[in-house]
C-alpha cells in the first residue's frame, strides 16, 4: 500500500486529498449528499496519484465540528476500510486544520502567538478554540467552545492575537472580529485539501469519533 488519503465531509464541500508516487492530488466539490460520490472521487484521485482505492496505508479524517450526517460519512468510511485492510487512521478537527494552515504559512513569523480559530455551527451559533504557535511548535490550548454570536464577539474583543476562520463554509466569518483584528489571509481561511494529511500526521491523533462541540442541554431546543 503506497497512498495516503485525507478527507473532510463535515462541511458543505466534500474535500479530498490523495498523496502517492505521482504527487498530491485533491478536489473540493460542493455536493449535498456526499456519500453518493465520495467513493468515485477517491478512486479518481487514487489513480492520478499512482494507485487505486485498495492502496491506502494511512487515512486522515476531519472529525468536525460540523454537519452531523457529514461527520459520520468519513468516520464510517475510515473505520470500515481499516477493518478490511491494515491502515493507519488519524483524526483531527476543523480547527486543527485551520491552525495548521496558519502555522505552516508565510504569515507566521515564528514568534509566540495565541491563535483563535472560529467556524460557524448554525445560524447565530459558532465554534471557538485557541492554539499556541511558537517556533516549530503548534499546540492546542483549549477545547472547542460552542458560543452564541454575541458571546463569540465578546471573547474576540478581548483576544489580542491572530484569528483564523473557516470562510468557505461561511463567507462572513471575519465580520465577527473587532476592527483592527489580525485576520488570517483568505488563501488559508478554509480546509485546504493539500494540508489535511500534513496536519493529521503532525498531530498524530488516533481518535476518529465525531466532535459534537454543542452542549447536550441545547440539542432539543427548538
- Separation, N- and C-terminal Cα atoms: 48 Å
Tell me the name of the CATH homologous superfamily of the largest domain.
ATPase, nucleotide binding domain
Q: Please identify the structural class as seen in this structure.
A: alpha/beta
| CATH top level class name of the largest domain | Alpha Beta
| Sequence of secondary-structure elements | EEEHEHEHEEEEHEH
Give the biggest beta sheet: 5 strands, mixed
pLDDT < 50 stretches: 218-222
Strand content: 25-35%
CATH arch. level architecture of the largest domain: 2-Layer Sandwich
* Tally of DSSP β-strands: 10
Helical fraction: 25-40%
CATH-defined topology of the largest domain? Nucleotidyltransferase, domain 5
Structure description:
Helix 3 crosses helix 5 (193-203). This protein has two domains: 3-93 and 191-217, ATPase, nucleotide binding domain (Nucleotidyltransferase, domain 5, 2-Layer Sandwich); 94-188, ATPase, nucleotide binding domain (Nucleotidyltransferase, domain 5), CATH 3.30.420.40. It is built from five helices and ten strands, in the order E-E-E-H-E-H-E-H-E-E-E-E-H-E-H. Helix content is 27%, strand content 29%. It has helices at residues 38-49, 68-84, 94-103, 149-158, 193-203, and strands at 3-8, 13-20, 23-30, 56-62, 88-92, 113-122, 125-134, 137-140, 145-148, 163-165. It has 222 residues and is of the alpha/beta class. The strands form two sheets. The chain has a five-stranded mixed sheet with strand order 3-2-1-4-5, sandwiched between helices. Strands 6, 7, 8, 9 and 10 form a five-stranded mixed sheet that branches.
